[in-house]
User: Which sequence fits this backbone?
């Protein structure tokens, strides 16, 4: 079993739709959680950190469920420019500085 | 402009040759990382360095070597011992080992034939 698992998709949604991605992790000692965005053939860029209390940044909401060991990303009012691959990233306490990446979920927003 | 640079963007080599990928950062970050990404997959950690003159193996270090003689530079050598070297190589840095965000360079696409 992979340490971080994501539904690869692809998710194909119309503009304006709401879409949610989930990511599960296996190491209960994991401490920090992030969502990165990666455009085709480009480097990943941090989209948002994920906090226990949940956090929102504009149209994006991230949530963490430690009991069930998953994090989620909700995108509201999807834009064409949201089309990308979204990578779930988990860091453990004992390996400070080492991050484990999921394989990514691909989102395509269509007109 | 502060950031991470990787060169070259595309690199082609013959099987059996060693090749060195460049990574330079002017962010004054202590920690630097090398990842490999294969099509449809996430990033896998090759090596990381938390401070100058020190580095540790990541999850897939076999066939690779690194050095960290200067804070701003963390070159990766792909040796002939790496069985499947063709991949997208990404270098990243973070302020220190506990910093949340990793900043990535634009990557080098290596093709070995």
Assistant:
């Amino acid at each position: 079993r992979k340490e971080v698992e994501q539904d690869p998709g692809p998710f194909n949604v119309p503009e304006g739709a709401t879409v949610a991605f989930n990511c599960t992790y296996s190491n209960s000692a994991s401490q920090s959680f992030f969502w990165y965005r990666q455009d085709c053939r480009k480097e990943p860029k941090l989209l948002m950190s994920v906090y226990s209390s949940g956090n929102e940044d504009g149209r994006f909401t991230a949530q963490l469920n430690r009991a069930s060991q998953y994090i989620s990303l909700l995108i509201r009012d999807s834009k064409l420019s949201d089309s990308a691959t979204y990578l779930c990233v988990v860091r453990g306490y004992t390996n400070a500085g080492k991050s484990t990446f999921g394989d990514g979920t691909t989102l395509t927003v269509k007109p | 402009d502060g950031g991470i640079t990787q060169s070259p963007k595309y690199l082609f080599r013959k099987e059996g040759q060693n090749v060195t990928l460049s990574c330079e950062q002017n962010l004054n970050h202590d920690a630097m990382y090398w990842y490999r990404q294969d099509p449809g997959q996430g990033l896998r950690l090759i090596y990381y360095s938390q401070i100058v003159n020190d580095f540790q193996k990541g999850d897939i270090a076999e066939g690779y070597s690194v050095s960290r003689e200067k804070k701003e530079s963390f070159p990766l050598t792909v040796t002939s011992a790496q069985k499947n070297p063709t991949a997208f190589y990404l270098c990243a840095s973070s302020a220190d080992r506990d910093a949340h965000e990793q900043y990535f360079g634009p990557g080098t696409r290596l093709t070995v034939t």
The interface with chain A takes residues 31, 33, 35, 40-45, 48, 50, 58, 88, 90, 94, 96-98, 100-102, 104-107 of chain B (CB under 8 Å).
